[in-house]
Amino acid sequence: MKTKFTYTGIRTKDLEKSLQFYVQVLGMKETGRSKIDQNKGTTVSLTTHDGGPVLELNYYEKGSPFDVEYVAGEGMDHLAFQVDDYPFPNSELEPYLVQIPPDPRVPLYVLVNWC
Questions:
Q1: How many CB atoms are closer than 10 A to CB 64?
Q2: By the 8 A CB rule, do 109 and 101 touch?
Q3: Exposed e or buried b for every residue in 5-44, given b needs 16+ CB within 10 A?
Q4: 9, 18, 32, 63: which could form a disulfide with 77 (CB 3.0–4.6 Å)?
Q5: Spatial contact of 56 and 45, defined as CB atoms under 8 Å apart
Q6: Rounded to whole angstroms, how far apart are CA atoms 111 and 55?
Q7: DSSP state, 24?
């Protein structure tokens, strides 16, 4: 199986405050924003330069199954890898599979939970 690391997703409790920090203080640029109705979430993609690593901020509204309490240091939401062959030829990665976004317009990503 061939993979490509694509982005890091972190959770935020306050999307606008986080954006202010990453954009105004660190100079990152917003490159995309998506509303995900099925989990009452919003994602915002940020980068420092074209083709650079992507940081995805994940905000979950009250009532979302992902709106859970966490403390500083527990905000890592997921790592995303693009894969070239799914379903996997073996079940080695199945215990780590969290979700595959259902949007057919984007490449297939496997979000892994390594904990």
A1: 14
A2: yes
A3: eebebebbeebeebbeebeeeeebeeeeeeebeeebbbbb
A4: 9
A5: yes
A6: 14
A7: I
- DSSP β-ladder status, 29-36 and 41-47: antiparallel
**Per-residue pLDDT in tens (0 to 9) along the chain, 115 residues:** 666 777 888 888 899 999 998 898 788 899 999 998 988 999 999 998 888 889 999 999 999 988 888 766 666 766 676 666 655 555 565 565 554 555 555 555 555 554 4
Length of the chain: 115
7 touches 85 (CB < 8 A)? no
- Side chain identity at residue 97, one-letter code: L
pTM of the model: 0.68
CATH topology of domain 3-112: 2,3-Dihydroxybiphenyl 1,2-Dioxygenase; domain 1 (3.10.180)
Give the separation between CA 27 and CA 47, rounded to whole angstroms: 9
